[in-house]
Known about the structure:
Chain A is of the alpha/beta class and about 260 residues long. Chain A has helices spanning about 10-20, 50-65, 65-80, 85-95, 110-130, 155-165, 215-225, 235-240; strands at about 1-5, 30, 45, 135, 140-145, 170-175, 180-185, 190. In chain A, helix 3 packs across helix 5 (about 110-130).
Amino acid sequence: MTTWLYDGSFDGFLSAVFDLYWQRRSDVRICKELAYVPSLFGPAIFMPTVMANAERVWAGLRKRLSATGLEQLFACYLAEIPREEDNMVGFIRHVFAGSENVETDFGNAYVLRVSQLSRMVHREKHRMEAFVRFQHTAEGVYYAVIEPDYNVLPLITGHFKERYADQDWLIYDLRRHYGIYYNHKKDVVDTVNLQFKPAYLGGRDVTAVWSPDEALYQQLWQTYFREANIPARSNRRLHLQHVPRRYWKYLTEKHPPR
Amino acid sequence: MSERILEKLSILADAAKYDVSCASSGSDRKNHNKGLGNAHPGMGICHTYTADGRCVSLLKVLMTNHCIYDCAYCVSRKSNDIKRAAFTVQEIVDLTINFYRRNYIEGLFLSSGIFKDPDYTMERLVLVAKKLRTEHRFNGYIHLKAIPGISPELTHEAGLYADRLSVNLEIPTEAGLKLLAPEKDRAAMIRPMRYLQQEITRFESEQQTMKHVPKFAPAGQSTQLIVGAGQETDRDIISLADHFYRQFRLKRVYYSGYVPVTTDARLPALQSKVPLIREHRLYQADWLLRFYGFGPQELLSDQHPDLDQDVDPKLGWALRNLHWFPVDINRADRLLLARVPGIGMPTVKRICEARRFGDLNWEQVKKMGIMANRAQYFVSCKGLPPSRGDLNAQQIKRRIIDPAAQQLSLF
């Protein structure tokens, strides 16, 4: 068994898939270079990304899958789960094996896994659309920090661009060290990497640059959150099911001043 | 200044929380003007959940909790000795915009106690919505309370700015309403509902034939029924809901377990528990009416006027109707599959899509999101353990509710 390493990009993965077909190999696993752990699985070779080959695989997939099916496969990549490539390759082989669209063939284990994993990724996407909490800075940017389970920034960009078309905003993924920044005058979203001053605790604490009203609106929101609760109906189990603890860190309403 | 607004918000959010409507979906209001907010493609987002597990998607406040009425079940009733407050129109607009910009909310839910008279109160609510839409180019979600007794002109104007309107019926039976809210009458509540339904229908048909017809309450109307304040049965409630869904094309009927807020001989005592399980079962039954093709008489009848507390209504129905089962996973029609306990609509869709590629066995079906330990007694499928055999309804129910009992029966 040989391991082929790719550069970590989606195109890198597709390009490696092309080589699988080109060399007619079935004894190869595909793995991210950075996620590779030398193991019993024999030698590892780095496969450079060839854009043209990646595009050919994608074009083939587009002929056989709907937009939804394509997005589901991409979501599996965004999950960034080690070894998930094995299932993605199995799925792609199943797609190319026949002529009809098999994305709903849930009796097939590869297809089922793709649909389940993409559901998990989309749940995280939806949670981020809900749990992003912008803080308004003195410079007029609405700034939010997230640490999602999966790499969902590419999936939520459109939602925030549509919704906040008349303000500048920045959503930063601290776990993956990059963010998306929208400039409303230019109407474009850019990917950004930031170096934070020590005072900002790596981007987690930006109280120093708040706009004059920010503290009041956070307090108003905390007040609202407290009053909206009906103690006679208290249901902690249900609450935690909807808002698991790992999301509390960046939820303004969960940190009222003592 | 900031102290006062904090106090107002605290009073007027507290007073509004007994209205349980939380939907922020179904509007599909696009951000077409590079303004603020977008309700396309009409998905709602729950931005957070309170400690009682209810979702927060809208800023839900009263314009004021001053009220000229004295309804027994209401915390803002005239005779209740509580702190009163009133927002200005501008204060609500500022709160909504600033909460929305920070991604706290999907929009605004605005209701009010009735001061002076219904029209005067409604004018203020409409003014808030109008300011948001016109001065702030706000495309987020707005839900306005339609106050019983308002003029058709105002109802019409409200529909032009709001995504959803609701008239709360609150007390499910006329007798109960007479007892608990003698100043209100059912007919005055139904009138704006009827008017809204006609307007919504008229706008919909005009939109199909003409361009540039404005939106009119695109997310429709809803209502709320309080559960457990009067003597009504579940059958009263569900047939009323069914009537509203059919006659008024309501988008939602909400059920609100009565939370004791005042001492009153006509109502459950202050210490009595909120009927949470009953409320939950009503929502499940409501779902079966709206999405699963059940009729109200299938779920409740003269012999069976209240829903079971210990099993959900679908399982209850299945146990009373074992002659429908087992259902063949690979052959059964969509709606029949959906009647199997432990199989929900999303799973039905998956099964129907997957079985086109060939017959599914039990191992495959189990992985598709069904609750296998429930469904196994009601389906037939290759590879299914022959567990159901000649079990009667009682035995099946016991095995589902208490899986441990099944283990014991083997020895």
